[in-house]
Specification:
mainly alpha; transmembrane; membrane; transmembrane helix
Length: 107
């Protein structure tokens, strides 16, 4: 379990900034109420597809993912682990921000 967390983190670092940008963009539209949380998750799901497509088309995936394949991990599994962790982190981020905004309106 410890190794899969480390390998997933190394894999996630290659897509970290794209995930952060999509999270901030979705939060920008969720907090004022332009879209709801479910729609923002749909937008993040589309962004995940764009991220995978971009890495597949513009990066040489055979050379980029050689380390992970050589370690015996499937790239599809690493994408699922990374995107699941990102979606959970995004849910926590949105929950905390909505809670802070709610408390700000009360006090």
């Amino acid at each position: 379990m410890r190794n899969i967390l480390k390998i997933t983190w190394y894999f996630y670092k290659s897509i970290l900034w794209w995930c952060v940008i999509t999270s901030l963009a979705c939060a920008y539209y969720v907090l004022p109420g332009y879209i709801n949380v479910v729609e923002s998750y749909l937008l993040k799901l589309m962004a995940y597809g764009v991220i995978v497509g971009f890495q597949y088309i513009y990066h040489n995936s055979n050379k980029t993912f050689f380390y992970f394949r050589n370690a015996g991990y499937h790239i599809d599994s690493l994408y699922i682990y990374s995107f699941t962790a990102d979606a959970v982190a995004y849910g926590i981020f949105i929950s905390i921000l909505k809670l802070i905004l709610h408390w700000g309106r009360i006090f």
